[in-house]
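Support request from a user on the community tier.

User writes: "When I paste my C-alpha coordinates into the form, the page sometimes reloads and wipes my input. The last time it worked, I copied everything first. Here is what I submitted, just in case something in the input itself triggers the reload:"
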Protein backbone atom coordinates (compact mmCIF):
# COMPACT_ATOMS: atom_id res chain seq x y z
CA UNK A 1 0.00 0.00 0.00
CA UNK A 2 1.12 3.52 -0.71
CA UNK A 3 0.07 6.52 1.39
CA UNK A 4 0.34 10.02 0.00
CA UNK A 5 1.19 11.38 3.37
CA UNK A 6 2.46 14.29 5.39
CA UNK A 7 3.66 13.95 8.96
CA UNK A 8 2.03 17.23 10.04
CA UNK A 9 -1.39 16.83 8.39
CA UNK A 10 -4.04 15.83 10.97
CA UNK A 11 -5.92 13.92 8.25
CA UNK A 12 -2.86 11.96 7.16
CA UNK A 13 -2.06 11.35 10.83
CA UNK A 14 -5.52 9.85 11.40
CA UNK A 15 -5.03 7.46 8.48
CA UNK A 16 -1.50 6.57 9.61
CA UNK A 17 -2.80 5.81 13.11
CA UNK A 18 -5.48 3.52 11.65
CA UNK A 19 -2.96 1.76 9.37
CA UNK A 20 -0.57 1.24 12.29
CA UNK A 21 -3.37 0.11 14.61
CA UNK A 22 -4.45 -2.46 12.04
CA UNK A 23 -0.83 -3.55 11.61
CA UNK A 24 -0.79 -2.75 7.89
CA UNK A 25 2.51 -2.02 6.16
CA UNK A 26 2.63 0.94 3.79
CA UNK A 27 5.02 3.07 1.82
CA UNK A 28 4.81 6.76 2.74
CA UNK A 29 5.38 9.60 0.31
CA UNK A 30 5.71 13.11 1.76
CA UNK A 31 3.25 14.37 -0.82
CA UNK A 32 3.00 17.98 0.37
CA UNK A 33 6.66 18.51 -0.52
CA UNK A 34 6.59 20.77 -3.58
CA UNK A 35 8.67 18.24 -5.52
CA UNK A 36 5.83 15.69 -5.11
CA UNK A 37 3.00 18.04 -6.10
CA UNK A 38 2.55 16.70 -9.62
CA UNK A 39 2.31 13.11 -8.36
CA UNK A 40 -0.26 14.12 -5.73
CA UNK A 41 -2.40 16.00 -8.29
CA UNK A 42 -2.33 12.84 -10.41
CA UNK A 43 -4.15 10.85 -7.71
CA UNK A 44 -6.23 13.66 -6.18
CA UNK A 45 -7.46 16.63 -8.24
CA UNK A 46 -7.62 18.66 -5.01
CA UNK A 47 -3.91 17.98 -4.39
CA UNK A 48 -4.62 17.14 -0.75
CA UNK A 49 -3.26 14.43 1.49
CA UNK A 50 -4.03 11.75 2.46
CA UNK A 51 -4.59 9.50 -0.55
CA UNK A 52 -4.31 5.73 -0.25
CA UNK A 53 -3.39 3.46 -3.14
CA UNK A 54 -4.01 -0.23 -2.43
CA UNK A 55 -3.20 -2.23 -5.57
CA UNK A 56 -5.73 -0.98 -8.11
CA UNK A 57 -7.86 0.93 -5.58
CA UNK A 58 -7.23 4.66 -5.01
CA UNK A 59 -9.09 6.30 -2.13
CA UNK A 60 -9.15 10.05 -1.51
CA UNK A 61 -10.27 11.78 1.72
CA UNK A 62 -9.34 10.54 5.18
CA UNK A 63 -12.85 9.47 6.26
CA UNK A 64 -13.30 7.46 3.05
CA UNK A 65 -9.85 5.92 3.50
CA UNK A 66 -10.63 4.84 7.06
CA UNK A 67 -13.97 3.38 5.91
CA UNK A 68 -12.19 1.52 3.09
CA UNK A 69 -9.55 0.14 5.47
CA UNK A 70 -12.26 -1.04 7.86
CA UNK A 71 -14.11 -2.83 5.04
CA UNK A 72 -10.99 -4.34 3.52
CA UNK A 73 -9.03 -5.11 6.73
CA UNK A 74 -11.74 -5.39 9.43
CA UNK A 75 -9.60 -6.61 12.36
CA UNK A 76 -8.86 -4.92 14.68
CA UNK A 77 -11.93 -2.75 14.15
CA UNK A 78 -11.82 1.03 14.43
CA UNK A 79 -15.61 1.37 14.32
CA UNK A 80 -17.68 0.15 17.29
CA UNK A 81 -20.09 -2.75 16.76
CA UNK A 82 -23.37 -1.11 17.81
CA UNK A 83 -25.19 1.22 15.40
CA UNK A 84 -25.55 3.91 18.09
CA UNK A 85 -21.84 3.93 18.88
CA UNK A 86 -20.94 3.77 15.19
CA UNK A 87 -23.02 6.92 14.71
CA UNK A 88 -21.23 8.53 17.66
CA UNK A 89 -17.81 7.58 16.23
CA UNK A 90 -18.70 8.99 12.81
CA UNK A 91 -20.06 12.17 14.33
CA UNK A 92 -16.88 12.84 16.33
CA UNK A 93 -14.73 12.03 13.34
CA UNK A 94 -16.72 14.64 11.39
CA UNK A 95 -16.49 17.24 14.18
CA UNK A 96 -12.73 16.66 14.34
CA UNK A 97 -12.31 16.84 10.56
CA UNK A 98 -14.50 19.88 9.95
CA UNK A 99 -14.77 22.06 13.07
CA UNK A 100 -11.71 21.34 15.26
CA UNK A 101 -9.48 21.29 12.21
CA UNK A 102 -10.79 24.59 10.85
CA UNK A 103 -10.31 26.56 14.03
CA UNK A 104 -6.89 25.12 14.85
CA UNK A 105 -5.79 25.70 11.25
CA UNK A 106 -7.09 29.26 11.00
CA UNK A 107 -5.54 30.51 14.23
CA UNK A 108 -2.22 28.70 13.87
CA UNK A 109 -0.93 30.16 10.57
CA UNK A 110 1.40 32.52 12.42
CA UNK A 111 3.13 29.60 14.14
CA UNK A 112 3.83 27.45 11.10
CA UNK A 113 7.55 26.75 10.63
CA UNK A 114 6.92 26.70 6.85
CA UNK A 115 5.49 30.20 6.45
CA UNK A 116 7.13 32.37 9.14
CA UNK A 117 4.71 35.22 8.45
CA UNK A 118 5.97 38.70 9.31
CA UNK A 119 2.43 40.05 10.03
CA UNK A 120 0.16 39.50 13.00
CA UNK A 121 -3.27 37.80 13.17
CA UNK A 122 -6.21 40.16 12.52
CA UNK A 123 -7.59 41.58 15.80
CA UNK A 124 -10.07 39.19 17.44
CA UNK A 125 -9.15 36.07 15.44
CA UNK A 126 -7.25 34.27 18.18
CA UNK A 127 -9.90 35.18 20.76
CA UNK A 128 -12.69 33.86 18.48
CA UNK A 129 -10.72 30.63 18.06
CA UNK A 130 -10.19 30.24 21.81
CA UNK A 131 -13.89 30.85 22.44
CA UNK A 132 -15.04 28.27 19.88
CA UNK A 133 -12.45 25.68 20.89
CA UNK A 134 -13.66 26.00 24.49
CA UNK A 135 -17.22 25.31 23.30
CA UNK A 136 -16.02 22.22 21.44
CA UNK A 137 -14.03 20.99 24.45
CA UNK A 138 -17.11 21.38 26.66
CA UNK A 139 -19.03 19.22 24.22
CA UNK A 140 -16.25 16.63 24.09
CA UNK A 141 -16.00 16.59 27.89
CA UNK A 142 -19.70 15.67 28.05
CA UNK A 143 -19.33 13.11 25.26
CA UNK A 144 -16.55 11.26 27.13
CA UNK A 145 -19.06 9.44 29.33
CA UNK A 146 -18.00 5.90 28.45
CA UNK A 147 -14.29 5.98 29.35
CA UNK A 148 -11.55 5.75 28.60
CA UNK A 149 -12.25 6.57 24.94
CA UNK A 150 -15.04 8.42 23.13
CA UNK A 151 -16.94 5.23 22.31
CA UNK A 152 -15.63 3.18 25.25
CA UNK A 153 -13.09 1.24 23.21
CA UNK A 154 -10.51 2.94 21.00
CA UNK A 155 -12.11 4.01 17.71
CA UNK A 156 -11.78 6.28 14.71
CA UNK A 157 -13.25 9.11 16.83
CA UNK A 158 -10.16 9.08 19.06
CA UNK A 159 -7.75 8.81 16.12
CA UNK A 160 -9.47 11.75 14.40
CA UNK A 161 -9.58 13.96 17.49
CA UNK A 162 -6.11 13.36 18.89
CA UNK A 163 -4.08 15.33 16.28
CA UNK A 164 -6.24 18.44 16.83
CA UNK A 165 -6.35 18.25 20.61
CA UNK A 166 -2.58 17.72 20.75
CA UNK A 167 -2.07 20.67 18.35
CA UNK A 168 -3.91 22.86 20.87
CA UNK A 169 -1.01 22.26 23.26
CA UNK A 170 1.41 23.69 20.68
CA UNK A 171 -0.87 26.75 20.44
CA UNK A 172 -0.70 27.22 24.22
CA UNK A 173 -4.38 26.22 24.48
CA UNK A 174 -4.07 22.78 26.05
CA UNK A 175 -7.33 21.85 27.86
CA UNK A 176 -6.69 22.26 31.57
CA UNK A 177 -7.21 19.32 33.90
CA UNK A 178 -9.53 21.15 36.31
CA UNK A 179 -12.04 22.33 33.69
CA UNK A 180 -11.78 19.22 31.50
CA UNK A 181 -10.93 16.21 33.73
CA UNK A 182 -12.35 13.62 31.31
CA UNK A 183 -10.40 15.08 28.37
CA UNK A 184 -7.23 15.06 30.48
CA UNK A 185 -7.80 11.38 31.35
CA UNK A 186 -8.55 10.60 27.67
CA UNK A 187 -5.39 12.39 26.62
CA UNK A 188 -3.32 10.33 29.08
CA UNK A 189 -4.96 7.10 27.88
CA UNK A 190 -4.28 8.07 24.25
CA UNK A 191 -0.63 8.84 24.95
CA UNK A 192 -0.19 5.35 26.39
CA UNK A 193 -1.22 3.76 23.09
CA UNK A 194 1.82 2.41 21.18
CA UNK A 195 0.50 3.81 17.86
CA UNK A 196 0.21 7.29 19.36
CA UNK A 197 3.70 7.15 20.87
CA UNK A 198 5.07 6.04 17.53
CA UNK A 199 3.21 8.83 15.72
CA UNK A 200 4.46 11.53 18.10
CA UNK A 201 8.04 10.27 17.67
CA UNK A 202 7.55 10.28 13.88
CA UNK A 203 6.39 13.92 13.89
CA UNK A 204 9.29 14.97 16.09
CA UNK A 205 11.93 13.30 13.92
CA UNK A 206 10.29 14.58 10.70
CA UNK A 207 10.22 18.16 12.07
CA UNK A 208 13.95 17.92 12.84
CA UNK A 209 14.66 16.47 9.40
CA UNK A 210 12.59 19.04 7.46
CA UNK A 211 13.10 22.26 9.41
CA UNK A 212 16.47 22.19 11.11
CA UNK A 213 18.70 23.08 8.18
CA UNK A 214 18.32 24.36 4.63
CA UNK A 215 15.09 25.50 3.00
CA UNK A 216 11.88 23.66 3.89
CA UNK A 217 10.55 21.41 1.09
CA UNK A 218 7.01 22.82 1.45
CA UNK A 219 5.02 25.80 0.18
CA UNK A 220 6.13 28.82 2.21
CA UNK A 221 3.81 31.67 1.21
CA UNK A 222 0.37 30.55 0.05
CA UNK A 223 -2.25 28.97 2.28
CA UNK A 224 -4.81 26.42 1.06
CA UNK A 225 -8.29 27.64 2.08
CA UNK A 226 -10.71 24.79 1.64
CA UNK A 227 -14.41 24.96 2.52
CA UNK A 228 -14.63 24.33 6.26
CA UNK A 229 -11.60 26.44 7.08
CA UNK A 230 -12.97 29.33 5.05
CA UNK A 231 -16.45 28.88 6.51
CA UNK A 232 -15.20 29.37 10.08
CA UNK A 233 -13.37 32.56 9.06
CA UNK A 234 -16.40 33.95 7.25
CA UNK A 235 -18.91 33.15 9.97
CA UNK A 236 -16.67 35.05 12.38
CA UNK A 237 -16.50 38.14 10.18
CA UNK A 238 -12.90 37.93 8.95
CA UNK A 239 -13.84 38.22 5.27
CA UNK A 240 -11.96 41.51 4.74
CA UNK A 241 -8.75 40.05 6.09
CA UNK A 242 -9.20 37.02 3.81
CA UNK A 243 -9.90 39.20 0.77
CA UNK A 244 -6.67 41.08 1.47
CA UNK A 245 -4.86 37.72 1.57
CA UNK A 246 -6.44 36.84 -1.77
CA UNK A 247 -5.41 40.19 -3.28
CA UNK A 248 -1.86 39.66 -1.98
CA UNK A 249 -1.65 36.31 -3.82
CA UNK A 250 -1.41 34.23 -0.66
CA UNK A 251 -4.52 32.10 -1.24
CA UNK A 252 -5.06 28.71 -2.88
CA UNK A 253 -8.65 27.42 -3.17
CA UNK A 254 -8.70 23.75 -4.19
CA UNK A 255 -11.12 22.38 -6.78
CA UNK A 256 -12.53 18.87 -6.80
CA UNK A 257 -12.98 18.85 -10.57
CA UNK A 258 -10.48 16.70 -12.43
CA UNK A 259 -8.11 18.49 -14.76
CA UNK A 260 -9.11 18.13 -18.42
CA UNK A 261 -8.51 14.57 -19.61
CA UNK A 262 -8.09 13.16 -16.08
CA UNK A 263 -10.62 10.69 -14.68
CA UNK A 264 -11.96 11.09 -11.13
CA UNK A 265 -11.49 8.12 -8.81
N1 LIG B 1 -11.29 16.31 3.71
C1 LIG B 1 -9.91 15.98 3.49
C2 LIG B 1 -9.04 17.14 3.93
C3 LIG B 1 -7.58 16.92 3.64
C4 LIG B 1 -6.74 18.20 3.83
O1 LIG B 1 -7.24 19.28 4.10
N2 LIG B 1 -5.43 18.04 3.65
C5 LIG B 1 -4.55 19.18 3.73
C6 LIG B 1 -3.44 18.96 4.73
S1 LIG B 1 -4.05 18.98 6.38
C7 LIG B 1 -3.82 19.33 2.39
O2 LIG B 1 -3.40 18.36 1.80
N3 LIG B 1 -3.69 20.56 1.89
C8 LIG B 1 -3.00 20.85 0.67
C9 LIG B 1 -1.74 21.63 0.92
O3 LIG B 1 -1.48 22.01 2.07
O4 LIG B 1 -1.01 21.85 -0.06
C10 LIG B 1 -9.57 14.70 4.25
O5 LIG B 1 -10.27 14.38 5.23
O6 LIG B 1 -8.67 13.98 3.82
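"...and here is what came back when it finally went through:"
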Amino acid sequence: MRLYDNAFSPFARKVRLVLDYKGLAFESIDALALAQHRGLSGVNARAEVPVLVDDDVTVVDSADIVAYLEDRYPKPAVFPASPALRAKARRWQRVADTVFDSIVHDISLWMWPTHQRPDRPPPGLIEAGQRDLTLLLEELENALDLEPFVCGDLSVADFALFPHVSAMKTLGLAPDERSFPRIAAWNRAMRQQPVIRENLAHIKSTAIEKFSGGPSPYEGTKVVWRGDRLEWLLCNGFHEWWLAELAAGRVIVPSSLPARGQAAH
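Agent notes: The reload is a front-end session timeout and is unrelated to the input. The pocket of glutathione is lined by residues 9-11, 32, 47-50, 61-63, 97, 219, 224, 226 (CB under 6 Å). The chain has two domains: 2-72, 83-211. Escalated to web team.
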